Amino acid sequence: MAQDQVTPPSVSQDDIHRIDDDSFTDRNVCLVTGAGSGIGRATALVAAGNGLTVAATDVDEEGLEETSARGTELDLEGTIEPIGGDLTVDDDIERIVDRAADLGDVKYLANVAGIQHIDSIEEFPMAAYDRMHRIMLRAPLYLSKRCIPHFRETEDGRGCVGNMASVHGHYVTSDKVAYNVSKFGLRGLTQSIAAEGDGEIRSFSISTGYVKTPLVTNQLEDTAEQRGISVEEVIQDVMLGQSRVKEMMEPVDVANLFLLGFSDLGRHLDGGDLLFDGGMTLTYE
């Protein structure tokens, strides 16, 4: 079955890249959005696997519990604390950050949460656009605004925001206007944080092609219908057609990049974008 090619895999101990970093301790907190599945779940597990205390948030509280349970099952060095919340609600965002601060020193923020809607601009429902904007662009800004003061209060006064961008923050495909606009906007947010952070508060974005996540799996049929092609053709021609590396990334591959960016190895990564797209954009045909 074609969809099996993009089935999200689980994270194992061997998948987690360990980085020797003095700031990766249980005293420091990494807040991860979208942690109930996909890249968010993998990032929560990799952060905990590197010894951090993880404040894991998602509107999907059952998914959060599964993430936390997986962390326990893997016997990770750090702990994962589930914090349910809706990123379209400001009171929830404030509560999430306050709860994260109760766990220790908030030092890292991974803005991962995202949703998708497939429609042409002419047919695109503005309610869907508004919801996507709030989750994927406004919430990362407000979370950054609330976390940055906590970063400054840490032992060394430093902190870092990692934003999940996309190849769609470099070039766009049709019928994804809200997603495209949000990802371009996230790169602008990334650079704005860097401009104001004086090298003490860093930021970076990660831009990948298609990753084996529920978000990708769930858009297969809609994309196929919108383009008048089969699901198999969506995978081979749309998702992998421009990529020189003919396999999708796994969520843990992206999660490891987040921790690399957060670590001292990423100290010169400030406002930059990690483009891990298998040659998709820079070798465009």
Strand-pairing-aware structural class = alpha/beta
CATH architectural group: 3-Layer(aba) Sandwich
Domain count, please report it.
Answer: 1
Helix percent reads: 40-55%
**The first-level CATH class name:** Alpha Beta
**CATH level 3 topology:** Rossmann fold
The number of distinct helices, counting runs of at least 4 residues, comes to 8
Write down the Rg.
Answer: 18 Å
Give the topology.
Blueprint (H helix, E strand, L loop, with lengths): L27 E6 L4 H12 L3 E6 L2 H13 L6 E5 L5 H14 L1 E7 L14 H27 L6 E6 L12 H21 L3 E8 L5 H14 L3 H9 L11 H12 L9 E5 L9
Parallel strand pairs: 1-2, 1-4, 2-3, 4-5, 5-6, 6-7
Helix pairs in contact: 1-2, 1-8, 3-4, 4-5, 6-7
How is this structure best described in words?
There is one protein chain. With 285 residues, this protein is an alpha/beta fold. It has a single domain (2-276), classed as 3-Layer(aba) Sandwich (Rossmann fold), CATH 3.40.50.720. It is 43% helix and 15% strand. It contains eight helices and seven strands, in the order βαβαβαβαβαβαααβ. The chain has helices at 38-49, 61-73, 90-103, 126-152, 177-197, 214-227, 231-239, 251-262; strands spanning 28-33, 53-58, 80-84, 105-111, 159-164, 201-208, 272-276. A seven-stranded parallel β-sheet has the order 3-2-1-4-5-6-7, with helices on both faces. Helix 1 crosses helix 8 (251-262) and helix 6 crosses helix 7 (231-239). The longest helix is centred in the middle third of the chain and has 27 residues, at 126-152. The chain is globular, with a radius of gyration of 18 Å. The protein starts with 27 loop residues before the first strand and ends in a 9-residue tail after the last strand.
